[in-house]
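seq/struct pair 1
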Amino acid sequence: MAAEVPPDALGRRVSCGTDYGTVRYVGSVSRTAGIWLGVEWDDPQRGKHDGSYEGTQYFKCRHPKGGSFIRPNKANFGVDFLTAVKDRYGLNEKHDAHYGTGGTLVFGTKTVEFVGMDSVAEQQRQVQLNKLVDISVRECAVSHAGQEEEISRTCVNMRHINLSKNLISSWDTVIAIASQVQNLETLNVSENKMRFPSTSTFTSSAFSNLKILALNQTEITWTEVLLCAQGWPVLEELYLSSNNITVLERPDNVLQTLKLLDLSDNQLLDGNQLHLIAQLPRLEQLILRNTGISSIHFPDAGFGCKTKMFPSLKRLAINDNKISQWSSINELDKLPSLRALQCNNNPLMDTEKNPETLIQLIIAKISQLEVLNNCEILPAERRGAELDYRKIFGKDWLEAGGHWNPEKNKPSEEFLAAHPRYPMLCLKYGAPEEGELKGRQPLTLKNQLLTLTIKCPEKPEQKPVEKKLPESMTIQKVKGLLYRLFKIPGSELKLSYESSKLEGKEVELDNDLKPLQFYSIESGDCVLVRW
């Protein structure tokens, strides 16, 4: 017996085994009997042709081998939402294994009849459905909402729904489900290739309480996002990865409550596209992983100034992109609220042979950064990075017109463009002195040795000792040396140092695993030993 084809089969999503596709044709095929479905498969390797057969084009595919014909009985058109929920949570009649047929209960081989047992079982299922708050029906072949108001009568406490990777063909189906969930807060409809409204339509109140929405891999465009966003009045997190979004538009009067936006794996290419979403007032986290951008620029702010763009942005992810110039890192210092940055896997990361040096340069260039590539930046690490930066580029500063005398200090525009934070570092730590301007020297052993004075402030009778130590020596090994010197166990020692350049400032050497160079200790500095 031939399977019945739904009257709205054209354009519907179907599955066939583990493969998903969209019905592009329903009808007969030359020199064959019966009805066929022409399907464009999500995975082109599942297909055989481009929708043509024996010279006749029945439907079109984006991929030349992305289509094939299947019989209707091979296609799964899906189930309604509530059926999927009952199946997933074992609340369907067929899961009541302890019940027999016709209102009977089975005890071993004996069957006892109970009047009204069916209604009791249904009531128990109803109670259990009412308790569900967080529902996941991922990969449960959900294709439609079901009978009107049935969901609202059955699942009154639902707050969070995962509808990812189902057979939803249209945004209207999502609205039909969500409109029956009074307090819906989280919704994931990723991996459903569906149709979205192309013109402004009646705004549904289905998403009036929605705070988190995931639309990854749904083929939505940014224009469609803005149209649908009219119905998301309190949305805080929006996930849009892998949607082929290439062009952005300014979101006027929508998405104004948004705190997180994920645009990863969309080929935006042009960093200037970001200017169009730069006025979202509450946006705190922006994920731009693998978007193809090669530069970032905030033209409204000059050297050392803050931009008015992205006023609330605290966390930015730009990893896996094509950023190759330090000018883009300089630009990030213009963001007034930036605290965390992810920037791994950019060509820029290959410009320095030493990864530690690269990290120090980024820290020194972005003043308010607290977390870099998921690692917290400790105060001592920032201080060391900024002092090193000030020394490394000191000669360039002098050659570009920099001077210790403030009245003569006029570094060139080119220098300020390359090092916009340098004047601030000079104000913070003082202009670099002649002895500090050693530039980037080759790493010979002589260059790596530090001449340090070691004192015991609490033991004035102990004479200061001068030692030459490699700058790569860890604090733990320094403690081992001092144990042999003072016969005090390393675990009891507390070390700090005073810089010869910054009198009165004492810095704790509080991480045993870090080398001396991490703390920017220089020859002539004094290590203080306490226990």
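seq/struct pair 2
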Amino acid sequence: ELKKEITRTLTAKNPRIPRDIVRYNFKERAYKIVDDMDETAIHFTLNGNLVPKDSDEGRRQSIKSTSEAGRFIENAPVEASVETTEEAEVKDEEPTGDAEGEAQAEAEGAETAEEAEAAEAEEAEEPPPPKAPEKKLANRFNFIERGTTTFHNPLREKGYQTDPAPYQTFSANVNQWYIYDAYMEELEIMEKAKEKEKAKPQAVKKEDKTTGRKLSYVEPLHGDSLSKVAKAAKIAERMVNLNTFDDIAQDFKYFEDASDEFRGQEGTLLPLWKFQYEKTKKLAVTAISWNPKYKDLFAVGYGSYDFMKQGHGMLLLYTLKNPSFPEYSFSSESGVMCLDFHSDHPYLLAVGFYDGNVAIYNLKKPASQPSYKSSAKSGKHTEPVWQVKWQKDDMDNNSNFFSVSSDGRIVSWTLVKNELVHMDVIKLSGDGTTMQGPEGLQLQTLGSGTSFDFHKKIDYLFLVGTEEGKIYKCSKNYSRQFLDVFDAHHMAVDSISWNPFHLKVFISCSSDWTVKIWDHTIKTPMFVYDLGTAVGDVAWSSYSSTVFAAVTIDGQARVFDLNVNKLEPLCTQLVVTRKKNKTTHIQFNPAYPIIIVGDELGLVTCLKLSPNLRKMPK
């Protein structure tokens, strides 16, 4: 049985560990068997007190042990010599079987001699020094806890007492008549204030009529002698003007430049009326817009493009029937930068100002101030408003328009219950550029919008030109995303507009001397024209998809027709004669073959296009 072989296999598994333990797994939301149990079984543990040789403590102890060993070696040589002599003698005297008796006798004699010698040696030698007790190795893991207590200061309470606050009792009786009288007094004050407000516009109306020709005739409820004459006076004034400028009126109506036949494809611009007003001589023309209903009426905005010389602004409305004096005149504290007529309500005029405000003027109401105006509370822009555009009325038939500003916001303004309500449509972000702020903060910079235009057919689609020279194609539906970005110009985009006939095409101009024509589905321009100096404004004609005009800051107007010549302008003509005067804006009349050009000295010039410049496409 003992010799019988029994094979036993050693495995790393511990047979005593519990198996099939189940725990809830929150990740998989189910009960799972736990596989990885700890198989280690500990049979024997011993806490040692060994010290590593290489450590400081090990070196110290090895030095101590070697010094003690040196002391023991000094005492050792005497004992060693005695032992060696004994061994030598024993080896020499190996006994044989024949002479056992002799050997025993000799051995006894030798022993007695040795004992005598040893006794003499012991007497002669000094006693050996006592052995130094062995030092136990120190355990590095032993430690002692030590604690100390600090002295606690005793608590002290402090208290103050103050004089009581003075008080006084009072009483009074109030009855309902007293309350009633107080209410009646307040009502009287409010009614008086209302009467004063009503009286104000009437006075303004009279003043306007006396100064004459400022406002178009509005039939008042209670007519006085002046208002009855006003309409007749206006008609008489227009007749006098027609007589004065009869030759210009004849040219406007009937003159056609016969020399066009000998010029080939080129044409000319014939100067007609000049519109100027005493109060706007030091202001620049910053905006021009034709009225959509009355084709002879146009609005001109006056301000300043020089940010160091900002002052008041003016808004004037002229008609071709009376070039000597404006039909309407409004002044503002800040310069007018842009304006736009409502297409369905031609008496509503949206205006943007240099101080970031927008306003709506109602030409039916003869007030000197705008009917509606934004304020800091109602979300006005923080920088100049460069363009405003009316849009179709919303679902609730509320009028609304859009504005773009250097602060990077494009804002929708809605006229709800006699107040302007704003909503940010999109914020133009910079090209991932951040600006270093105080204490190392990274501030996101916004793009600066300078111009924009809405698509003629697709309501939600619009283009925005920026100060950096980029053009963003945007949608009203996406407030944070652009549909497309065009790297259009190297400087600010001064003007941008969709072609009224060809719905994919738009035009842009910039201070980098170029005018570019684009297809919004293609990233690169189709036509690029370098005009040799900064371009102030560009406009499509109302009668042909291929004709457009541009003005440059050297005072020249250029008219192009892509159908005739794709490379050169058909007409380049100096519009302003004075030096240092710059042309700023140009607009085609929607009905007549004329253009109006504004300049920096507040002068608006009307020019007639010669037949070569207004060829109708087939």
